[in-house]
Design brief:
Oligomer: single chain
Number of domains: 2
Strand content: 25-35%
Number of helices: 3
Number of strands: 5
Low-confidence stretches: none
Structural class: alpha+beta
Distance between the termini: 62 Å
Helix content: 40-55%
Length: 232
């Protein structure tokens, strides 16, 4: 039973961690190579990796999506330590609207224009910080969604994810607050009910034991009478 509980908790933790890693903002140091627009099919389960900015997109089986092609600096430790090598990364540029995740992004056209303006070559690079959420997966045709972009002077910058830091601080505070409320509720409401139920159960057990003892004594008395009867 203990192993089942541990396995269940690990699965829940991994699911929540994966959800947060997908939805929370991430920052990449990139050099924009090109931007383009392409029609994407949305008629299978991979639709979950695409935004639904309006009611119409929920019924369409395909639509035009804008993309931003970049060369990204590789990193270690979730982006805190940069490496000297680069890799190719493609971002989609879609509005999130009022839907999940709650970035309230409505400026897709403006972001695409900013990306076009920051396009550069390897000989004369213009580096930028791309803020995004989501994952890149070639097999499922999943692309991270670009949220914002800002130019920087050189790629050797340290980006501190302040939003994520404050988010986890607030999350821990909320969890501790909920835990304290639950312990207080349990002490005031749940524990007294459990104690009363346990006391009542003990009384029932004692009464049953007492009746069983009386019944046993009655049986013993009959057995004694049968033993003392003369044999004819």
């Amino acid at each position: 039973m203990r192993k089942i509980k541990i396995t269940f908790r690990v699965i829940v933790f991994l699911l929540i961690a994966g959800l947060l890693h997908y939805a929370l903002p991430q920052h990449d140091v990139v050099r924009i190579v090109n931007t383009y627009q392409e029609r994407q099919d949305l008629n299978d389960w991979t639709r979950i990796f695409w935004a639904r900015p309006d009611d119409q997109s929920a019924t369409l089986i395909n639509r035009d999506v804008q993309f931003i092609q970049t060369v990204k600096m590789r990193t270690w430790l979730l982006g805190f330590v940069q490496r000297e090598t680069t890799e190719v990364m493609v971002y989609r540029n879609e509005d999130t609207g009022w839907g999940w995740p709650f970035y309230f992004k409505f400026d897709t056209a403006n972001l695409q224009t900013e990306a076009d303006d920051l396009s550069s070559t390897a000989q004369n690079p213009q580096w930028a910080v791309m803020t995004h959420y989501g994952w890149r997966n070639e097999y499922f045709s999943a692309f991270p969604n670009a949220v914002a972009i800002r130019p920087i002077g050189n790629p050797n910058v340290t980006i501190i994810p302040w939003f994520n830091i404050f988010f986890f601080i607030a999350l821990m505070a909320a969890l501790l607050f909920i835990r304290a409320m639950w312990r207080q509720f349990r002490e005031r409401s749940v524990d007294p009910l459990l104690d009363a139920a346990e006391h009542q159960f003990d009384e029932v057990q004692a009464e049953v034991a007492q009746r069983r003892g009386r019944f046993t004594k009655w049986l013993d008395s009959w057995r004694d009478k049968n033993k003392n009867r003369p044999v004819k």
